[in-house]
């Protein structure tokens, strides 16, 4: 049993030679010719110029109904309203030496421009990468500095709190030792002192101890 082949617009165009856009017709014609003259004028287009023209032309003048583009064996490009014998030829092959040299020059300029753009893109990417690395390094350093400052502050606070606790512990026994209460009775005659602040016994006159 034969496999059913997928039918696409590209396959149809290649089989019939009928193209539904000027760009598609140009893709077929450029294998046979690279320089054309616009029919009825002396205006010449190389393949690069005609490519740019075809891009705009397809947007402004899309093919409708049964119309299509034709490509001759020599590479001429024409447009038909539906029948091949009614084709109106738009671009006629015209490859003189001067035009070919100009095309080669244009291609060299395009290649040089592409290389310059590619180099500029790589340099921009490299510059962006270095800037990103530098930014990440600065952020890491700042984070480390803040963490070190925070750690030092916490250690200083902890040390100060520890020292304060140690001083308080050392001061507590001394305070309790100095705060010995006075005797309430005279050791000489046994008479109670009249007040807590009395310095002498009211009965025998001896100093309070």
- Round the Cα radius of gyration to an integer and report it: 52 Å
Overall outline: rod-shaped
Oligomer state equals single chain
Low-confidence stretches: none
**Overall mean pLDDT:** 83
Alpha-carbon distance between the termini? Answer: 131 Å
Question: How many extended strands?
Answer: 6
Query: In sequence order, what are the helices and strands, one letter per element?
Result: HEHEEHEEEH
Residues in helix, %: 40-55%
Instruction: Write out the strand line-up for the largest beta sheet, numbering strands in chain order.
Output: 1-4-5-6-2-3
What structural class results from the helix and strand content? Answer: alpha+beta
Write up this protein.
With 209 residues, this protein is of the alpha+beta class. It has a domain at 9-95. Helices cover 54% and strands 11% of the residues. It has 4 helices and 6 strands, in the order αβαββαβββα. The chain has a 6-stranded antiparallel beta sheet, with helices on both faces. The mean pLDDT is 83.
Structural features:
209 residues, alpha+beta, 6-stranded antiparallel β-sheet
Provide a short characterization of the protein structure.
This protein is α+β, with helices and mostly antiparallel strands and 209 residues long.
SSE layout and pairings?
Elements: H1 9-16, E1 18-19, H2 22-29, E2 35-38, E3 44-46, H3 47-60, E4 68-71, E5 77-80, E6 88-93, H4 97-178
Antiparallel strand pairs: 1-4, 2-3, 2-6, 4-5, 5-6
């Amino acid at each position: 049993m034969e496999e059913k082949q997928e039918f696409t617009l590209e396959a149809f165009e290649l089989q019939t030679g009928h193209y539904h856009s000027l760009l598609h017709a140009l893709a077929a014609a450029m294998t046979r010719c690279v320089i054309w003259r616009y029919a009825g004028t002396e205006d010449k287009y190389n393949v690069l110029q005609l490519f740019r023209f075809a891009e705009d032309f397809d947007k402004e003048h899309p093919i409708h109904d049964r119309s299509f583009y034709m490509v001759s064996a020599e590479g001429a490009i024409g447009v038909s309203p539906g029948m091949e014998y009614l084709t109106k030829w738009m671009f006629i092959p015209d490859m003189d030496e001067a035009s070919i040299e100009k095309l080669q020059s244009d291609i060299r300029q395009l290649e040089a421009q592409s290389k310059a753009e590619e180099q500029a893109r790589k340099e921009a990417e490299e510059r962006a990468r270095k800037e990103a690395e530098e930014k990440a390094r600065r952020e890491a350093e700042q984070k480390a500095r803040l963490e070190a400052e925070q750690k030092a502050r916490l250690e200083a606070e902890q040390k100060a709190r520890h020292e304060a606790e140690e001083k308080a512990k050392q001061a507590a026994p001394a305070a309790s030792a100095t705060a010995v209460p006075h005797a309430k009775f005279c050791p000489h005659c046994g008479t109670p002192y009249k007040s807590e602040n009395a310095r002498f016994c009211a009965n025998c006159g001896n100093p309070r101890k």
